[in-house]
Design goal:
- The protein has twelve helices and no strands.
- The chain is an all-alpha fold.
Length: about 240
C-alpha cells in the first residue's frame, strides 16, 4: 500500500499522508503504480464530467482541463516547460541543455509550448465531449503515466541527485512488464478506443525517448514529465481527429 501512496502523493495534489519516511525500495516500487494513479485521475475527471451533465461542451472542456491541471499540481507541465527551454536554448549541447533545465525561470519557448499544448488539449476535449467520447478522460491519464513507467524501464537516468534518481535506481524491473501489460489490457477494454490510443502513445514515446537519448543520453525528471504531457495531448488529439 505504501508504494501506491507514494505515487499518489507525488503525482497528485490529493491529501495523502505517508506512514513514516519511505524506504528507497518503496520509492522505486511506486513507479509500478503510476498507471493506477492515472486511472484514478481519469476516474475523477469522468465523475466530474458526469456531474456537469448537459453543460455546453466548451465549458465542460475548460472545467475538466482546469481540474486536470489542479489535480496534478501542474507538475508535468513544469517539466515540459523546462524541457522546451532547454531544447531550444541548449543548441544541441548536452551540458548546456541540462543546466537550462535546472533554471526555475521560464523563457519564451516554455510559454509558447505550454499555451499550444493546453490549447490542443482544450479543443480535443471539446470535440470528444461533444460527441460523447468521455472514455478518453480515462485513457489519456493512464497512457501518459504508463509511458513514464516504460521510459524509466528502458532509459538511463542522467541527473545525479535528481528527483527521479531513486525511482530509477530502485525500480523493480522484473515487475514492470506486468504493470504495462495490465495498462494495455485496460485500454483495450475501454470500448475499443484503445486500439487507436495505444499506437499513438507508443509512437510519441519512442520519438521522445529517441530525442532524449540523442541530446542528453537518457532522461531526467523534467523530460519524463514532458513525455507524460505529450502522450496525453497526442492521445486526446488523435481520438478527436478520428471522429
Amino acid at each position: 500500500m505504501q508504494p501506491f501512496l507514494i505515487a499518489l502523493q507525488f503525482l497528485t495534489c490529493l491529501p495523502v499522508r505517508l506512514d513514516g519516511k519511505p524506504e528507497p525500495q518503496q520509492v522505486g516500487k511506486s513507479l509500478l503504480y503510476y498507471p493506477l494513479v492515472g486511472l484514478l485521475i481519469g476516474s475523477l475527471l469522468w465523475l466530474l464530467d458526469m456531474a456537469l451533465g448537459s453543460s455546453a461542451a466548451p465549458l465542460k472542456a475548460a472545467l475538466l482541463l482546469t481540474a486536470w491541471v489542479a489535480l496534478t499540481g501542474a507538475l508535468h507541465l513544469d517539466g515540459l516547460a523546462d524541457s522546451a527551454d532547454a531544447w531550444l536554448g541548449g543548441f544541441g549541447d548536452r551540458e548546456r541543455t541540462l543546466a537550462i533545465m535546472k533554471d526555475p525561470r521560464s523563457g519564451p519557448a516554455a510559454v509558447v509550448v505550454l499555451v499550444l499544448l493546453l490549447l490542443l488539449k482544450f479543443v480535443a476535449l471539446w470535440v470528444l465531449l461533444a460527441e460523447g467520447h468521455d472514455l478518453a478522460l480515462l485513457l489519456a491519464p493512464v497512457l501518459g503515466r504508463s509511458a513514464v513507467l516504460g521510459l524509466f524501464l528502458g532509459t538511463p537516468y542522467v541527473r545525479q541527485g535528481g528527483l527521479g534518481q531513486g525511482l530509477a535506481e530502485h525500480l523493480p524491473r522484473g515487475q514492470v512488464k506486468g504493470a504495462l501489460i495490465a495498462a494495455v489490457v485496460l485500454c483495450l477494454v475501454l470500448v475499443g478506443t484503445g486500439w487507436l490510443a495505444l499506437p499513438v502513445a507508443g509512437g510519441v514515446g519512442w520519438l521522445a525517448r529517441r530525442a532524449m537519448c540523442r541530446r542528453i543520453g537518457g532522461t531526467t525528471g523534467d523530460t519524463a514529465g514532458a513525455l507524460l504531457e505529450l502522450v496525453e495531448c497526442s492521445v486526446l488529439v488523435a481520438l478527436a481527429v478520428q471522429l
